[in-house]
């Protein structure tokens, strides 16, 4: 699970980086999401991820381009942006699972210093 989360994190960094949305989508998929093991994803993400992989591999590779590149190049800019949004949404869901409440550190505890209400701390008495 941790490796999949890291692959999604790196893909999201590509998606929010410079370049056209189609090229960022291609780079994110080829560079990071292709390595994700869909079987290890939670069901809530796994179904959407399987649909994404299917959509990006539904055409034949042509002219030295892989199937994902051909599929993305056929998309409109709005459709490519929608796929990018889906990937970011999957990453958010994975992050919630990855950083469950049990793994979060406890907030720092406050402590009371001195019980005498008449005495002000030195830094306040000079004010």
Tag the structure with descriptive keywords.
127 residues, mainly alpha, 6 helices
Question: What is the fold's blueprint, element by element?
Answer:
Elements: H1 2-15, H2 21-31, H3 43-56, H4 67-74, H5 77-98, H6 122-125
Oligomer class: single chain
What is the strand tally? 0
The class by helix and strand makeup works out as: mainly alpha
Helix content: 55-70%
Unreliable sequence segments: none
Question: Count the helices. How many?
Answer: 6
Strand content: under 5%
Through-space gap between termini: 54 Å
Question: What is the typical, i.e. mean, pLDDT?
Answer: 85
Tell me the count of domains: 1
Q: What is the general shape?
A: elongated
Largest sheet: none
Radius of gyration: 24 Å
Overview of this protein structure:
This protein is an all-alpha fold. The chain has one domain. Helix content is 57%, strand content 0%. The chain is elongated. It starts with a helix and ends with a helix. The model has no long low-confidence stretch (mean pLDDT 85).
Task: Summarize, please.
The chain is mostly helical. Helices cover 57% and strands 0% of the residues. It has helices at residues 2-15, 21-31, 43-56, 67-74, 77-98, 122-125.
